[in-house]
Specification:
transcription regulation, about 40% helix, D-Maltodextrin-Binding Protein, domain 2, about 290 residues
Length: about 290
Amino acid sequence: MRHLRIYRAIVMVAKAGSIRAAAEHLAVSPSALNRAIQGFEAELGIEIFERLPSGVRLSVVGELIYGPITDHLAQIDDFKLSLAEMQGGGAGQFSIAVSQDVQHSILAPALEHFRDAMPHVSLTVEQYQGPASLLDRRNDVAVVSTPEIVDGLAVACAATYPVTARLHPDHENCGGHLHWGDVETLSIALPPPATGVHMAVEGALRKHRVAARHLTSCPDGLLPPRLNPVAEVQFGLGQAGSNVGTEQLRISPVQVSVLYRASARPTTLTQRFVTLIQRQFDEDSL
């Protein structure tokens, strides 16, 4: 088990970029942590970290060994989870990266089912920062509306969602249908630029040569369920909360994909999550 403690310490130092910061998190002294890492480096005959004036970073050799270390830790954690489930418990850690236009409308129901199924699992949800967050093992899966398929990543499942709209409940078109002539007169709320909804709506605006009167970007999860208070119409994904038809706008649908690291066998938690969100995709398509 000594090596497992060293492995976890190396991962923590690599993420923090500092032995002192990692030591605080691990509740040990910086000097003790540094000695433990140096002893492990001496045992292997390599330098895992480059010591810099501002902290540390993985060396070239450290980058090579970091992957096997995190894979081994994932396998051990997966075994411990399976063992705990056999004994009637079940615990572990699971980290999800998510695009800001899916976290409220699509991911929230799947997370609720996940928590019900795995109540002892510590769950982290973070903003998607690109493929690197999966490749460097900061996150287990990513639920994204603008998937970048690069070497080392694979798609676990995917579904296509229409871009829908929510009008202010007092608007005269509420319950009816939106046309581009209506959109020109409205203040618009969109998720941030690097999201599928934002790109789909902006592409439709350019295609139909419509100039938005006022456009606001805001993460989907931070918007009230009914409407962003600074906008008259809010575009998003899925039918939840939609109160006006957008068929006449002919906005391209958005594909939501679940990505994972292809270089390692999916853990039990990853498989559970994929099963649950695939069920969510299937229900939304009905």
